[in-house]
Amino acid sequence: MAAEEPTLIFRSNSYPKSSKNSQTENISHRAAAILLHSMAAPDEALLSRRSWSSDLPVELLFGIFQKLTDCNDISQCAAVCLSWRSVIRNFYRQLKSLQSPFLLLESSSASYLVRSRCSCTLFNPQTHERHEIFLPQLKESTSTWSSYDGWLLVLPFSMLKNLCLLNPFTRDRIKLPPHLIEFDSDEGPDMIRVLASTSPLDPECVFFLFENGNLFICRPGDKSWTKVVINNTSHKHYRCCGDTICFKGEFYAEYECRIYHIKLNGSGVAEAIKLPVPYIAYGSASDNYLVELNGELLLVQTLTGHRILENCSSASASDVHVFRLDWHRKLWIEVKNIGPTAILLRNHGSTTLDVANFGGYFKPNCIYYVDGYKQELVVYNLETNHSETLHQFSSYWGNTLPDWLRVESAKIMASKHDQIDDVAPWPIIEEHFVKVLDKVAEKGLLTLTWAEERAWATIDDNIFEEFGKRYTVSKLKSKYDHFRTLHHEFSKLLAHSGMVWDPKTNIVRADEEVWESYVKKHPFGKRFKSKGFEYYHLLGEIIAYTQSSQFYNTKIGLKIRGVSDAANVYFEIKGAKTSTFPGGNEEFRRQEHHPSIEECIKILEAMDDLDDNIHVKAREKFISIDWRRMFVAMSEAKKRNWLYSLTCKSPRWRY
Amino acid sequence: MASSSSSSSCSSSSEKKITLKSSDGEALNVEKNVALEFEPAKGFLEDNSEEADDEAIVVPLPNVSAAVLSELIPYVKQRLELSAKPVQKKLIKAFDDQFTRHLSDDKLGELMLAANYLGVNYLLDVLCDVTADRIKNKSVEYVREFLGIQNDFTPEEEAELRAQCPWAFEGVDQD
């Protein structure tokens, strides 16, 4: 802090000559005065500094996060506070730093005997930096490679446990049925591969599990894998496969340039259809990859290091060939130009990138792959037939080649499963939350110990159903506590003379001096300067409800009635979950009505058997429009409770 | 740079002036082309274009204080002059750097809010860059302290976060 004061002075001097106009000179005097003032009272400066960032609108926060190029920084920001976390969670797919593909160097599977580390290491090809993401979800299991953009397949050590797909960026997890894995076989766990036909979050996704020539499928929600019986088993070659791919929802396997289309015929029976054999550039010396690009099936052949040494003493000018399948002529045609696209090769699901989205790092018409023998990241340019080493890896990564891992692409984001994982921004949920809370509190559920937990769980369920996001009861409760603090502070502010709050625009109007003196006394109030507390009335109601029903249940001794009442109401909410919210508008209309003091007195007079003391107290309360509104809105019984509560001396009732 | 700007502001003083009124009631005279860089002012001027005398127009900017405006105006003016000339991007960048280098954290925030409100996107971009730079490689505690953000995680959530990404709390750079 101390170091910043001199810079303030420096700033004020840096543009003094910018205008000769007396007006601006005036201003720089004023600015200097403000600066001097803030220097004289360093605490003040500290307080004012505490505020501006909480006013940052979401789009500005997002703008800042966009500038972060390191995924470490993103995860740090996600740990700063709830609102930052929700911004990052909701927009992570649009964050540039996460969109660019990473190379998955290793996960805890580096050796599955060392079980202590639960993390995966990512390599950012743009910055050549390594990042380690800690994944507690990997405990007792190993993850092999990604099965779909950005998703890791997690294999548990225990055979009985479920397989699962894990997104290391969002930590979303999708459980798949368990599958018997034999770890002690020579091949190790590498022989299992799981492919997803679309994003695993898509309810229509089909998962293919391929192991030793056996194909299993399952769909979301299945309890077990269904084995696919392949009819014409004369072609045994697909058993020991090279690359596999999910192309247009169906499964393709390759082995030494023989490509099979495993075509599912209804329930669990499939046919292995042999596709044409392409021109073989290097015979078995090449690595083949199946790639989908713009709805076409491509085959990419690369000649990797050790094969060059073994087979061709001098590497030919062209190391990479790309073929396209012509379905009608049943021919593979060599492709020389793949347009503004980069292909990232990997086993079992190579990806393609539209280079325009990646800020110039990925070049068009290029193929990126890892040469497992030389341990290099290589880019091959189809136009110039020239390859270039981008990075030389030092560490040895064992059997599994590094794998490309990327956050699901924008193309997928736009599809129908949007609703599943795209959550409404918190302000909308907040409004919803306060309204549900009001409904629940009105029934007095929040004050009954036995009903409270269930009521909170119902609220949580309700939010989950509306927005597809679970906040958990503890988080909702702390949110409620936070609201109560805000309400308390805001009512303090409104009680201050000179402060006028317009609930429609949610702006507090006051003279600058009033604000200044108020903020000096109540630093917390500063946050209301730009925007009031929009749920003030509703929250006031909620608090009044909880307090009056506490009174209702404990002081008057009508416990039993309260409980049965509450129970009825509980089921009413459960049953009417969907219909609760359209009614929100009605609530607003009710708020529009401003009951006059006379009206309230009339209601009060109509209620007999109230003692004079209560009348006096109630009239005091009726001075405030908020209390009048609440009073009119209350049911007959609640009105009574509230009135009784006014005479109670316990400080709990006053706030 | 300051001297060059003062000479050019003299030459442009013949241009029409607009009065901007800040949140704290100060009136500031600016050239019309500078005022047009601010979205709310632009909209206001378009709405009131039939007024013959621009001098008479007072554009209210109720969300920006005079202190912030007086920082913004020279910046926008110089930036406009720079981008009018066929200068290299490097120069603009150097100018932006010079402007932002010595900004205090507070000023940075105020300017950012103002630039957002006024729709000065190029400045906003630069400020976002600077903010991102300042929170890069820092610990979570530092970022909270820097931006004055209240930690609203429950202790359990915080513990969970720490377990998930311990590096985030260790502070990579010296704060």
UniProtKB/TrEMBL annotation, chain A:
<dbReference type="Pfam" id="PF12776">
    <property type="entry name" value="Myb_DNA-bind_3"/>
</dbReference>
<dbReference type="Pfam" id="PF03478">
    <property type="entry name" value="Beta-prop_KIB1-4"/>
</dbReference>
<feature type="compositionally biased region" description="Polar residues">
    <location>
        <begin position="10"/>
        <end position="23"/>
    </location>
</feature>
<dbReference type="InterPro" id="IPR050942">
    <property type="entry name" value="F-box_BR-signaling"/>
</dbReference>
<protein>
    <recommendedName>
        <fullName>F-box domain-containing protein</fullName>
    </recommendedName>
</protein>
<feature type="region of interest" description="Disordered">
    <location>
        <begin position="1"/>
        <end position="23"/>
    </location>
</feature>
<feature type="domain" description="KIB1-4 beta-propeller">
    <location>
        <begin position="122"/>
        <end position="381"/>
    </location>
</feature>
<feature type="domain" description="Myb/SANT-like">
    <location>
        <begin position="430"/>
        <end position="518"/>
    </location>
</feature>
<dbReference type="InterPro" id="IPR036047">
    <property type="entry name" value="F-box-like_dom_sf"/>
</dbReference>
<dbReference type="InterPro" id="IPR024752">
    <property type="entry name" value="Myb/SANT-like_dom"/>
</dbReference>
<dbReference type="InterPro" id="IPR001810">
    <property type="entry name" value="F-box_dom"/>
</dbReference>
<feature type="domain" description="F-box">
    <location>
        <begin position="54"/>
        <end position="92"/>
    </location>
</feature>
<dbReference type="Pfam" id="PF12937">
    <property type="entry name" value="F-box-like"/>
</dbReference>
<dbReference type="InterPro" id="IPR005174">
    <property type="entry name" value="KIB1-4_b-propeller"/>
</dbReference>
UniProtKB/TrEMBL annotation, chain B:
<feature type="domain" description="SKP1 component POZ">
    <location>
        <begin position="16"/>
        <end position="79"/>
    </location>
</feature>
<comment type="subunit">
    <text>Part of a SCF (SKP1-cullin-F-box) protein ligase complex.</text>
</comment>
<dbReference type="GO" id="GO:0009867">
    <property type="term" value="P:jasmonic acid mediated signaling pathway"/>
</dbReference>
<dbReference type="GO" id="GO:0006511">
    <property type="term" value="P:ubiquitin-dependent protein catabolic process"/>
</dbReference>
<comment type="function">
    <text>Involved in ubiquitination and subsequent proteasomal degradation of target proteins. Together with CUL1, RBX1 and a F-box protein, it forms a SCF E3 ubiquitin ligase complex. The functional specificity of this complex depends on the type of F-box protein. In the SCF complex, it serves as an adapter that links the F-box protein to CUL1.</text>
</comment>
<dbReference type="InterPro" id="IPR016073">
    <property type="entry name" value="Skp1_comp_POZ"/>
</dbReference>
<feature type="compositionally biased region" description="Low complexity">
    <location>
        <begin position="1"/>
        <end position="13"/>
    </location>
</feature>
<dbReference type="GO" id="GO:0016567">
    <property type="term" value="P:protein ubiquitination"/>
</dbReference>
<comment type="pathway">
    <text>Protein modification; protein ubiquitination.</text>
</comment>
<dbReference type="InterPro" id="IPR036296">
    <property type="entry name" value="SKP1-like_dim_sf"/>
</dbReference>
<dbReference type="Pfam" id="PF01466">
    <property type="entry name" value="Skp1"/>
</dbReference>
<feature type="domain" description="SKP1 component dimerisation">
    <location>
        <begin position="122"/>
        <end position="168"/>
    </location>
</feature>
<dbReference type="InterPro" id="IPR016072">
    <property type="entry name" value="Skp1_comp_dimer"/>
</dbReference>
<dbReference type="InterPro" id="IPR011333">
    <property type="entry name" value="SKP1/BTB/POZ_sf"/>
</dbReference>
<dbReference type="InterPro" id="IPR001232">
    <property type="entry name" value="SKP1-like"/>
</dbReference>
<dbReference type="Pfam" id="PF03931">
    <property type="entry name" value="Skp1_POZ"/>
</dbReference>
<dbReference type="InterPro" id="IPR016897">
    <property type="entry name" value="SKP1"/>
</dbReference>
<keyword id="KW-0833">Ubl conjugation pathway</keyword>
<feature type="region of interest" description="Disordered">
    <location>
        <begin position="1"/>
        <end position="22"/>
    </location>
</feature>
<comment type="similarity">
    <text>Belongs to the SKP1 family.</text>
</comment>
<protein>
    <recommendedName>
        <fullName>SKP1-like protein</fullName>
    </recommendedName>
</protein>
